[in-house]
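Sharing in case it's useful to others searching the archive later.

Someone asked me privately for the predicted structure of Exo-alpha-sialidase, so I'm posting the question and my answer publicly. Question first, with the sequence:
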Amino acid sequence: MSDRPAWGEAPPEHPDGVLRPRPEDPGVVEAYLPAPAVQNHAASLTVLPDGALGCVWFGGTQEGVPDISIWFSRLAPGAAAWEPPVRLSDDPTRSEQNPLLFPTPAGDLWLLYTAQRAGDQDTAEVRLRVSRDGGQSWDGPRTLFPAGPEGGVFIRQPPVVLPSGRWLLPIFRCVPVPGARWTGERDTSSVLISDDAGASWRERPVPESTGQVHMNVLPLADGTLVALFRSRWADSVYRAVSLDDGESWTPPTPTELPNNNSSLQCAVLADGRLALVFNHSSAADATARRVSLYDEIDEAGRAGEAGPPAAEPAGRAFWGAPRAPLTLAISPDGGLSWPLRRDLETGDGHCLTNNSRDRLNRELSYPTIRQTPDGALHIAFTYWRQTVKYVRLPPDWVDGPATAGRAG
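And my answer, the predicted structure tokens:
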């Protein structure tokens, strides 16, 4: 009988970034990245030009507080540990969130991230910094996509470069509700298209996408673009398709996979299959719900205590469904079916609070996934909002035994 707590194993108080084999799971290596702040969340992995892995995330006191900044760490080829993180943003007036690293075809490295006032995502803008030496130094930040009367601009998934040379950047619009603070109730998805290597952009909205966000664009071998979405309704992972390089999209429709109004990420594997990491849970698994993501943040961005969970908050957006387990699913048919699913990490996923100061949050969330030329899968994710956990899987791990009750 295990002596672990019912909600899973707590992260180390002083994570060191050292790679260690996972007990009882041969071939799997894991590490807890050094945690530069009280709260660490929303990791994104990228293979850097020199073959190193780069990981960015945001850290500070609590999401929505102005001390939230972007942090960056590297895992050099053959290294035994992740390097100490460095801070890449520091705007004392805004919460800087959801960073992405994008190695451009020309050899530059872009850092994209959002910046918002307090918990008001409808004020968010997308900012850019560029490195021309693989992340060793960076130019100054500039606003690439400002907020406007129609609301804030948010990102989560990386840009995609198509065979034609076209760039696609998935965004979602954080639409304000007059007289109320943002809750995500009216958010919609779009792709920004650039045919001149990022010099100019135009927007193509996804029809009927209200509530479907974090659009993850996946180019298939036949030229089809598949997009997977997080759902504000905490019901299902949604899917849409484009047959014209992102100019138009089908309306998103639910897949067989659940979603809990939390992020997911998918990669196209070398063999053409899709590998998706997500929380295998939904509103149906919730024991309570929150009013919003920022119900512990006041209008000045000060963190306090959440009020009692709401039985039925106004609006359809559902916050508070468990952010666990963290599951890897495989699709052989472009996301139409997901016959193989395995849990990477389990726990109760408690996220009715974002409080990391008192270690109250226990979510396993916001995964990011990449495959390297050797076939290995690299995954990083939020571990209790205290640190970022990294896991490297051998190629055949995805074909291992399905988690009981999770097979399609």
